[in-house]
Structure formats: C-alpha cells, structure tokens
Amino acid sequence: MALNVGKEVSKLRRLTVRELRERYEDVFQEECRSNHKQWLIKRIAWRLQANVEGDLSERARRRALEIANDADLRMKAPPEKKPAPVARGRKFQGKIATTHDKRIPLPGTILTREYKGATVQVTVLPTGFDYEGEIYASLSAVAKVITGSHTNGFLFFRLNGTGARK
Description:
- The chain has about 170 residues and is α+β, with helices and mostly antiparallel strands.
- Helices cover about 40% and strands about 15% of the residues.
- It has six helices and four strands.
- Strands 1-2-3-4 form a four-stranded antiparallel sheet, with helices on one face.
- A hairpin with a 2-residue loop joins strand 2 and strand 3.
- Helix 1 runs antiparallel to helix 3 and helix 2 packs parallel to helix 3.
- The longest helix is centred in the first third of the chain and has 17 residues.
- It starts with a helix and ends in a 10-residue tail after the last helix.
- About 10% of the residues are buried.
C-alpha cells in the first residue's frame, strides 16, 4: 500500500488541534501532551509513513544511539562573529535577465486562498505547482481542480501582475 504523504499532510492541516491530538493518540497508542499544531502534523505524518514503509531497523537504532553517545556537547556558546567589513567603492548596478513570469512568485512560495470556507494552499515549484501532493503544470489547472470548472489561475489566486495579495 502506497502512502501519498502530501495528501495526508493536507488532510492533517485541516484538522483542529483537538482532532490532531486524537489522531496522534490513535496512531501512537499513547497520550499526547502537545498542543503545537505543526509538531503534531509532522509527528503523525512521520508515523503514518513509518507504518506503511517500515520503521528504522534495530541495527539503525543502535547506530543512532552510538552516534548520540559519542557527540561532543558544547559547554559554552560560541563567540559572536564580527560582521564582514563592507567593501567600499565597489558597486554593481544592473538587471538580471530572467525568463520567469513576473506574475508568479518565486519557487518555494506558498499561495494561500480562502475558498468556500476552506483554506487552499499551493506551493510554487520551479517547474509547476504542488497542490495536496499532486503536481500541476499551471495555476489554471490547480484552480480547475479546486473549483470544478475552468478558471483563470492568476485571477483565482489574485496574482494580477503585482504579486500575491496579502
């Protein structure tokens, strides 16, 4: 059985902290003491993936303990680094040529939009858009999946040539 981690994480993001705590207790079979939503999402997703794909082997666990025991712990904080001196008299002005569509934010940006009472999140990738673990070639394709009908992706995500609306 294959697990689509992206879809599972999307489902978990929609849950409340109380629901995540209940899910945690179901998955780990132990009481949850955290109310930190992001931590709960990460831990539950990790356990679901470990259950499907297999956990660490006993040999790997022993090796991790060996490494942890050998780790040197710092007893005092490192000294503060001095900032690098500013090079005076050296300036460069110019424009960087790019073929990137200026209406689309840079890769790594997460576009967020409220739609029919739900929060929709799409991650901009270098070669497409990630929505709930699936990769789409265009924002319009993502908008079509969300709305069920053809919609201009730039308008749906409010990218009207001036960048994302805050």
